[in-house]
Each structure stands twice: as structure tokens, then as C-alpha cells.
Amino acid sequence: MFNRREFLMNSALLGSAAMFLPACVSTPKMRKFGPNDKVNVAIVGIGGRGAATVKAIDECHRANIVAFCDVDEQRVAKAKSVKVATAKKKIPLFHDYRVMLDKMDKDIDAVAVCTPDHMHYPICAWAIAKGKHVFCEKPLTRTIWEARELKRLANEAGVKSQMGNQGHTYHGWKELREWVEAGLLGEIEEIYMWTNRPLWPQGASLSMPKAQPIPTTLDYKLWLGVAPFQPYNQVILPFNWRGIRNYGTGAAGDMACHFFDTPYSGLNLGYPTNINVKSAPFNDYSFPAYTEMVMDFDNKFGKGGKIRLNWSDGKIRPKAVKRIDDAFMKDPRNANCLFVVGSKATFGGTHYGTQSMIYPRDMMREYKKNGMIPAPKYKRSKTPGNPQADWVYAIANDTTPESNFDYACPFTEMVLLSMVGALVPNRDLKYNPEKMKFDNCPEADRLVSSLYDYNTEFLP
């Protein structure tokens, strides 16, 4: 097993987030499941969203949790869902996912990854190389290159994969597609989305805090993983890492994988033809405190074949949205919103893909009264809001998960373009997905593959 210096140095030499994988690059055969067999799942990262994943998998009758992995024993001790699962069966706890996968290789069918963003790719890639089915929290990766690689690795290994954006298992994006195809909205003109994130420190005023003693319950080097060294400080762990460029993806990475799913899936948006982002001041350490972005798409549902997407975060919101009244727009409670504006009507829903509505509301009532709301055309998920269970059932029944990497990787790539735009603001960026480069902005190209500045001189 190589140490952290070797891990990062070789990543730097490859010019990407690449890494050495375990020796078993020829993926072992995966287990076939009978109608009563359970999927043996190991969960990496069991605080925060990881605790929700523990609960969801523990309650899934086709799953059996066989291992936990977390670098922070204190977080493990506080996780109620872990206590519930452990009470049923003594579940071993590991600190290093590589050790867990080596020691329990034959006992693990699948791995759920719920760590901070910077460790999503390396853990998923390692698990896939060991022949394990993989679930990963959103955002799937921190860079476009990593997303492309995970799709390739998962396909080559033949594993069942899933990103944890629960909105894709809800009905909202399918209802949008059905209503658009039925002509209820007319031609699509614009999309508006806004969020009150970030809820953590982020922006130009943020700088690296002073070193503090590392808690005895935390393996800090394992927490850092592939990230450049930074002294430990409790202000960063366990939550405020999201706004730091070494670890997170800012407000867009945290929430756009929810918001964007409904229009991206419902309208088959694909890649944008142009991206332009206005950003608050930022620095090399942190993402902007707020952004306002427009993406333009060529799209068959669009007015004149064009659709404009408007995204804002940091409590910034548009002044007006067609058919949405001023009182709603000004109400501070409406902090996370999604609207798809058509030439006839406006579609609205939650950022998780629920509570689909047509505005003005009297039009929705009229459509329902006259039986104009089309019957479901696209198959609904049997586990709405529960991508973990959807993944387990797909493994057990040999079906395809809703948010598998064939879908989730290009979707993540599109979402991450917003992050690239935020770090290269006030530019019309022309992304070329075939070349995975920007045709008109070479300085943005480095953000496709890495957000790190590998200076190995200071590595421990």
C-alpha cells in the first residue's frame, strides 16, 4: 500500500485526479442473486448524509450491511442509524476503505460512498476495481474528468451504479416531460432556479485557519485523502469543507444536482452551447459567496429551438418570473425554487422533483377539471425519494438503477460546468464535450481535470 505522498505525486504526474488502483484490475465475477438473497453492502462515510444512507439501506429488505468505514469515531458514535443497524448485528468498523475492501473482499457485494466530495472519485474507482457495485452521494465527482472516468470504469466492470440525487427517483422530471409533450406548457422559453445555499462560510474573505490539535478520534490524514495538506481546524470539519476548493464544489455542487435534474431530464437538455457566470469575489482557497449564471441550450422543446437556464445562489433570486406573482417572489420562505417557463404556462416544483404544478394555478385547476393532465406515460420509480433502495433492488434483481452512471456522469459534467464558469467569470464559455475542452478559453481547461495545485514539497 502506498502512502499519501506517493498517491498525490502520481496523481500530479498523470495531470488529473487519477490514482493507482488495486492490483485486481481484471474485475472478478460478481455474485448472482436469487429471489431471497441479500446484497452485502459496505458504507463509507456514516455521518451526515451517510447516516441517512445507513438508515435507508438498513431498512431495505434485500440489503445486509456488513461493514462500516469512517475516519471519525466520534461521528460514528453520534449516528443513531448506525446504532440501530449495529444493534441487529455486530458490524465491523474500519477507518481506511482500502483496508476494508482488502480484508472483506469476498464478503462485500456493493459499496455506498457518502464522504466529502473530494473522496468520491478515488473511493468509487477503488471499489469498482474490486468488482463492487457502487452508490455515491451527489455531486458524483468534483471534476469533469473524474465523472468521465467513473462512467468508463463502471461500464468496463459491469457494476450497478447510482448517484444519490433523490430527485431523479421522484416523478417531477417525468411529469414535466409528459406535460410538455402534451402541449400544456407550449414552447419552453426559460428555466429559473435559485437557492439560499451556501449555508456555510464561502467567499473571498475566507482563508486557511490556524492549526489546531487533531482529535484523537479522527484520522485526519485519511480524511484529507487525495487533497493537498492543510492543517486541521474544527471550523472545517465536519461540514464547512463544502465552500473550500480543495474539498467541495460550493453551492452549485451541493444543490444543482437536485435542481438541475428536473429540467435536464424532463427536457433532454444535454450540454449547453454557452455558459456565462457572474461571481462574487473569490480566491484560490474558497468558492464565490454567490453566483448568477446563464446557460443556453439548443433544444427541440425550446422556443425557436433555444432554451435559457438561469441559476443563482447565495440568496440571489430573479426579479420576476412569468406568471409567478410578486408576493411569492418576495417571500423569504421561498428560498429554493424551480420554474420552467413556457409560452402557454409555467411549470413549478420543488428542487427534489416533487409537487409539480402549472401556473397560473387556475389553469392547473382547469386542466384537471377538463381531464387535460395526461396519464403517466413514463414508468415511475418504485422507490421514490430513496435512491439507495433503488440501487439495492437493481443489484438484487439485475435491473438498471434510475440514476446510474450512464446518466449521472454526463449530468454531473453539465452541473460542474457551472462551477468552472464561477471560477472563470464574466466570460462566454464555449464547452466542447467531444474534446472535453473549452474552444475559446484555455485557462478554463485546467479546471476540467483538476482543482489542485500539486506542490509535493510540502506534503507530509
Explain this structure:
With 460 residues, this protein is of the alpha/beta class. It is 33% helix and 17% strand. It has helices at residues 4-14, 49-58, 73-78, 80-88, 97-103, 120-129, 144-157, 172-181, 220-224, 250-259, 261-266, 326-330, 361-369, 387-397, 405-423, 442-449, and strands at 39-44, 63-69, 93-94, 110-113, 133-136, 161-163, 188-194, 274-279, 291-303, 306-312, 337-342, 346-349, 357-359, 431-432, 437-438. The strands form 3 sheets. The chain has a 7-stranded mixed β-sheet with strand order 8-9-10-7-11-12-13. Strands 3-2-1-4-5-6 form a 6-stranded parallel β-sheet, with helices on both faces. Strand 4 (110-113), helix 6 and strand 5 (133-136) form a beta-alpha-beta unit. It is globular. The two termini are 16 Å apart. Residues 1-19 and 453-460 have low confidence and may be disordered.
Task: Outline the fold blueprint.
Layout: H1 4-14, E1 39-44, H2 49-58, E2 63-69, H3 73-78, H4 80-88, E3 93-94, H5 97-103, E4 110-113, H6 120-129, E5 133-136, H7 144-157, E6 161-163, H8 172-181, E7 188-194, H9 220-224, H10 250-259, H11 261-266, E8 274-279, E9 291-303, E10 306-312, H12 326-330, E11 337-342, E12 346-349, E13 357-359, H13 361-369, H14 387-397, H15 405-423, E14 431-432, E15 437-438, H16 442-449
Parallel strand pairs: 1-2, 1-4, 2-3, 4-5, 5-6, 7-10
Antiparallel strand pairs: 7-11, 8-9, 9-10, 11-12, 12-13, 14-15
Helix pairs in contact: 2-4, 6-7, 7-15, 10-15
